[in-house]
Amino acid sequence: MANNIAGQTITGNSAPPDSPKSKVGRIVFDATAITTTDFVVVPVGFTPKYISWENVTDRIKNEWYEGMAVDSAINTVAAGTRTLSTTGANGGFTVCSADGTADVNGRYFKIIQNATLGAILASKTTTWMATA
C-alpha cells in the first residue's frame, strides 16, 4: 500500500479563525494511474469525529462518523443509493497518524482507493470536510 501523492493539486485545508475544529479542502487528481492499494492522508490538526469526502466529478459522497469501524464509510452514489463500505470489502476512512497508521487520537485521516468507493480516481476533483 502506498500514499499516493503524485499528480495532486491541493487547495484549502486551512482552519477558519472562528472555527478551529472544522476544516475543508479540495484535492484534484491528475491522470496518473492510481492503484487499488493507494490511499490519501489528509492533515486536519485535530481528531475528526465526522468526515465527508465527495468526488464532485462523479457525484459520489463518502461519510464517516465517530464510532464507525476503521476503514469504513457510508457511500452515496449519484443515483442516491446508500451502502456501508467496510474493512476488507470496499474500505473507507481511518483516523490516523501522519504515516497512515490507524490512531484513534490521530490528527489526520486517510481514505483508500477502491472502485466501489469511488473516492480516489484519476482525473477527478474531490472536496472534503472534517469536524471535531
Distance between the termini: 28 Å
* Average pLDDT: 86
Number of helices: 0
The count of domains is 1
Name the beta content range.
Answer: 35-45%
Number of strands: 11
Structural class: mainly beta
Helix content: under 10%
- Specify the biggest β-sheet: 7 strands, antiparallel
Calculate Rg over CA atoms: 13 Å
**Uncertain residue segments:** none
Dominant shape: globular
Question: How are the strands of the largest sheet arranged?
Answer: 2-3-11-5-6-7-8
Helices and strands, in order, run as: EEEEEEEEEEE
Name its key features.
mainly beta; 0% helix; 132 residues; 11 strands
Description of the molecule:
The chain is mostly beta strands and 132 residues long. The protein has one domain. It is built from no helices and eleven strands. It has a seven-stranded antiparallel β-sheet with strand order 2-3-11-5-6-7-8, with no helix packed on it. A four-stranded mixed β-sheet has the order 1-4-10-9, with no helix packed on it. A hairpin with a 4-residue loop joins strand 5 and strand 6. The radius of gyration is 13 Å and the shape is globular. The model has no long low-confidence stretch (mean pLDDT 86).
